[in-house]
Amino acid sequence: MHEFQERARTLVRSATLSYDQKLRQLAALATEALPSPELSPACAEALEKRVICDMFEGHAPFTARYILPDYEKAIRNGLAYLEMPAPTNLADALNFLQVMYANVPSVTTYPVYLGDLDKVLAPFVTDDISDDELDATLRRFWIAIDRTLPDAFVHLDIGPADSRIARAVFRVERSLRQSVPNITLKVDPLITPDSLVEDGVRTVFETGKPHFVNHPMMVGDHGEHYAAVSCYNSLKIGGGAHTLVRLNLKEAALRHQGSADEFLTTTLAHYVELTAELAEARIRSLVEDQHFFDTHWLAQEGLIDIHRFSAMFGIFGLAECVNLLMHHDAQPGEPDHRYGHDDLADAFSQRVVQQVADLVSTRPLPYCDGGGGYAYLHSQSGIDLDHDVTAGTRIPVGDEPDLLHHLTTCAPHHQYFASGISDIFHMDETAARNPQAIVDIIRGSFHEGMRDFTFNLDNNEFVRITGYLVRKSDLAAIAATGAARHGSDHLAAGSENSFHLTQRAVKRIGRGE
Amino acid sequence: MTGFLADTITFSNVDGPGNRFVVFLQGCNFDCIACHNPQTIPLARSDHFRTRVADLLPRIRRAAPFLSGITVSGGEATLQPEFLHELFTAVKADRNLTRLTCFIDSNGAADEATWRRLAPVTDGTMIDLKCLDPEIHLRMTGQSNEPVLRSIELLHSLGLLYEVRLLLISGVNDDPGLLRRTGDWLATVDPAMRVKVIGFRRHGARPHDPELAEPVHEQLVVAATALQVADFDICLV
Which of A26, A461, B6, B119 is the most buried (most CB within 10 A)? Predict the structure, then answer.
């Protein structure tokens, strides 16, 4: 109790957290007074040693982690709980959405999905509204979102079809340069024109957004009604993810005795099961103990449906896992087989991912109908606590081969990660004068089977930490004062210290002139 | 058919439109004081540089989904016109490569017959104009600029001039009056020409005594302003 009081006191007396940040962190602290869902001793130990992790979702989850309300349906039918009739014009529609956003929960306490804005607003953007009016209206909306939902996991989607709204979104983004909202452009090679992708690329040069997803591949896994949310997690609209649990493959490999082949069927299988156990305990707590879906208005009004939910099963540290096991298998004196630099290591890495995918897709989980009764495989960039572990299927920072090699090494893994994988690539600043070059690389990557494509331009004010953005100037302010208006900026400061993400090797895609 | 290659780059965003696979041929007929790849100047004909078109194609195929096209640079690309012709013909004949555009990055010294030979398989060219003034050009390159000016006119008339490049060295070829005359002349060829103004960088170039001066960005802006006598699409690098 004494420690609990100390932590609460530190929060309430903090000089750097805002009032709102204190309130939310105090709420998170309070659930720690409750017992966590019951786990087997092996699972509890793996959790404590951080071989597996629960992303600090709290001991008693009382919201699903990621929720994707069906905003199109809401706007069509109106909201009974919030006493909002269906809007009939653009101003009312934006007001309607703002009211709704304030009442959509998630693990971050802010909504992680704001809708597929081009589709949601399409009925209201009529020909009599000029582009200038549309831009001015969206600018006000953007400013309100950034100031009232100060969290870079707040995310909206546009595409794959071209539209006046999609173009306006990019213009507004470039003019405001805010870190919120986060944005995804859905790209379908047959539907999305190069000029829209290029507009997106030019917007990345200014703001680090959008993220690009391979639309046909996502539709193949989730159907048309999906969206990328939070830090690039692709889930069903009207559904979401109860929880995200992660397996640290490097830590699993460190605990393995025996050959690389044996790892797949013994140690890996063991930890996949413990990770699934953790997911199951958390899902049951949310659904059966806290009765989230029986009590929340979004479910009662049919804007979310438990049958469109599943859990996310994350992995990270793939590169380190492969390198450790390859090193262990090598004959004395034989050079190391390193992931990203060696065919044997690359092939083994694909076997690891495929094995995890096979195990996850045969381990039933309750209330996961969205995934056909199983969890979605996922891999995001590192969080602020991951040390010396590489995110996604990326090749470790500083050890990257040329970009073509890097892309073609990562791409074959992406098919397995239905709920998304954020491999972030750095581009040389010369690309700023030739955005078509990046459009070419995005199209090529999707052609080669990449699911998600994210890039940063060197010398950009915006830094992409995992799937969210911070401004370098905000990081500098934290270093100087300890305070930040966006909650995600605090996470980013931790990531920068762990990963030196702003120093990721830039792979030149061209000689300097 | 074999060519003499200095190097290849799988991805380049500075050698023509979009992302491009670039082949650098070995050997150049200019000896530019500002050359940033001077090791590619000698006409080395050793096996070390020898590469067949058939060896190059699999490497281009691997990168192809990520490309707008290929560019052959140098050295001087047009010194090996038959290799260029065979490479471009092979790219256009390959089902997986046929959508790629084939560009040449050249010093512009090739004669009319060479350009006409290459034109049917070429989609665009980028020509360096070191200087409009014949004497300064001779000092900068060791060669006359007369063939370069004729090439620029010819390639424009063939619809194959993608871009003219001006490499500026402080105090050598950046006199505003000279640049105005250069603009006037380029405008007679194409008043909407795409012009890339590149500031000389010492990195990679041979040492000189005294050292050649790198223009600062403000000098490039002044140069571009002097040059802009028509409706050029000017890009500063």
Answer: B6
Question: CB pairs below 8 Å between A and B: how many?
Answer: 76
- Per-residue model confidence as pLDDT tens digits over A264-307: 999 999 999 999 999 999 999 999 999 999 999 999 999 999 99
In this predicted structure, the answer to whether residue A499 has a pLDDT above a threshold of 70 is no
The strands making up A424-427's β-sheet, listed across from edge to edge, are A155-158, A182-187, A211-214, A452-457, A424-427
pLDDT of A513? 29
Look up residue A65 and give its amino acid: R
Which segments within chain B are labelled E, that is strand? 2-12, 20-25, 50-52, 69-73, 101-106, 124-128, 161-168, 194-199, 233-236
The three-class DSSP label of residue A430 is helix
Q: Which range among A161-175, A249-263, A425-439 shows the weakest confidence by mean pLDDT?
A: A425-439
Point out the residue among B12, B17, B65 whose CB comes nearest to the CB of A510. B12
Across A125-276, where does the E strand assignment appear? 155-158, 182-187, 211-214, 226-229, 233-236, 240-248
- Of the candidates A436, A445, A512, the beta carbon closest to that of B203 is on A512
Give the distance from residue A213's alpha carbon to the nearest chain B alpha carbon, in angstroms.
16
- What single string gives the DSSP state of each residue in B130-172? --SSHHHHHHHHSS-SHHHHHHHHHHHHTT-EEEEEEEE-BTT
| Residues of B within an 8 Å Cβ radius of A | 9-15, 17-20, 36, 62-63, 65-68, 198, 201, 203, 235, 237
Beta strand A462-464 with A469-471: parallel, antiparallel or unpaired? antiparallel
Q: Give A25-72 pLDDT, tens digit per residue.
A: 999 899 888 999 999 999 999 999 999 998 878 899 999 999 999 999
- Grouping H, G, I as helix, E, B as strand and the rest as coil, residue B50 is strand
CB contact under 8 A, B15 and A403: no
Nearest residue to A103 via CA among A111, A95, A94: A111
Q: How far is the CA of A47 from the CAs of A44, A50, A275, in angstroms?
A: 5, 5, 9
- Please report residues of B whose CB lies closer than 8 A to that of A445: 66
State whether residue A409 sits within 8 Å of chain B by CB: no
- Model confidence pLDDT, tens digit, residues A440-489: 999 999 999 999 998 888 766 666 555 566 777 777 777 777 777 777 76
Burial class from Cβ neighbours inside 10 Å (0-12, 13-18, 19+) for residue A333 reads exposed
Q: Which residue has the tokens 């929060």?
A: A11
Residues near A23 by Cβ (< 8 Å), separated by ≥ 6?
none
For residue A181, whether the previous peptide bond is cis, meaning omega lies within 30 degrees of 0, is yes
Res B198: pLDDT: 93
Q: Could you give the angle at the alpha carbon of B98 between the alpha carbons of B93 and B99, nearest 5°?
A: 165
User: B10, B19, B195: which to substitute to probe chain A, counting the most A Cβ within 10 Å?
Assistant: B19
pTM of the model: 0.90
Distance CA A256, CA A276 (A): 19
Taking the CA of residue A223 and the nearest CA in chain B, the distance in Å comes to 26
- Least CB–CB distance from B63: residue in A404, A433, A437: A404
Residue B20: strand, helix, or coil:
strand
Does the interface ipTM go beyond 0.90? yes
Instruction: Report the pLDDT averaged over residues B190-205.
Output: 93
Amino acid sitting at position A265: T
Tell whether A513 is within 8 A of chain B (Cβ).
Answer: yes
Percent of chain A with pLDDT strictly greater than 90: 74
